[in-house]
Amino acid sequence: MIRGRGKWYDGKTSRQHEVELHLDAGALRVVGVGVDRCVPVGRLRVDPRLGKAVRAVRFPDGELLETADDGLLDHLERRQGRGAFFRQVHRWENSPRRAVIAFVLLAALSFLFVRFGIPELADRAAATFPATTEGLLGRETLQILDRTLLEPSRLPAARQRQLRRLFDGVTSSYAEREGWRLEFRSGDVVGANAFALPAGIVIVTDKLVQLAKNDQEIAGVMAHEIGHLTRRHALRHLLRNSATALLVASVTGDITSVTSLSATLPTALIDAKYSRDFENEADDAAVAYLKGMGIPTRVYADMLRRLEKDHEKDSGKGARIGELFQDHPLIEDRVNRVLGR
Fold it and tell me: 123-140 pLDDT, tens per residue?
C-alpha cells in the first residue's frame, strides 16, 4: 500500500479537508475528519503531470482531491494504464539537455511545416476553392485597389481597344478564358507594372504600356500574367500567407466570407514575392506563347530588364504593387532562363 496526504473538496461547498491517502492495487481510499471515500482506480481521473503545478484527482461524484505527492499519482496512473506520455513530457521538462533537444526538434518541425506543409495545404485549398467565391474575391480586391492605390487609366480609348484585341489574341488558346478581362489603371504609386487577380482579372498600368517599345513586349507581359492566372498563383500566394483562411479552407473546403481575404490580397500583392517556382511557371507561359507566335524570346527578356531598371529608378518613391519583375528569382536568372542559357 502507498500512502500520501492531500486536500479534499466535496464538490458542494468550498470547505477544504486535510486527508490521508491510501492506494492499494485496486482502489484509492481518502480518509479525514468527516471524510471516508474508497473508489476503484478505474473511476478516477488524474490531471497530467506538467511542471510544478499541483495535480488533482477528480472523483465520479464531483469531489476533488489535490496533492503534491506526484509519486503516488504516478503509481495511480500506472495502475490505470494511463499517463505515460505526460510522464515522459515531465522528464523532458526537467532535463536541460532534453529541453534543448526538444526546442531544436520543435524549431525544425516548425520550419518544415512552414516550408512544405503550408504550401501543400494552400495548394489543396486553392484547388477546391469555389469559382463563384474566387470571382467575388477578385472583384472585391479590384474595388479596394481602386479606392486606395489605383487611378483611372489615361490611355486613349483607341489604344485600349487595340490592347484588348492583343489580349484576346494572347488568351485565344486557353479553354478557360471565358470571363477573363483586361483592365487598365494608372498611378504614381503603382509605376510600370502588370498583375493578375483571382477570377481572371489582369491589370496593366499606363506606365508599362508607355515603357514598352512595341506590342510584342506587352504581349509577353500579358502571357506572363496569364501564366500566373491559369495556375491560380495569386490565390495560392494569398492562402499561403493567410493561416486563418488556409485552415478554414482546408477543413471546410470553402470560405463563406471573402471580405477579409479581399482586404488582405492588396497587401499581399504589394509585398508579393512569388516563389521561384511561381515565377518560372509564369515565365514559361510567356516563352511558350512567344515561340508559338514565332516571336524571339529576347523581346520578353528585354522588357524584363527595362522594367527592372524602371523599378530601380523609382525605388525611392514609395511602395509599388506587385513588383512581379523584381521578386524572386533574381532578374538576370530569369532572363537567362527565358533565353535558354
Answer: 787 788 888 888 888 888
All domains of the chain in start order, with CATH: 2-93 (2.30.29.30), 120-338 (no CATH)
CA atoms within 13 A on the CB side of 153: 22
As a whole number of Å, the end-to-end CA separation of the chain is: 80
pLDDT of residue 328: 46
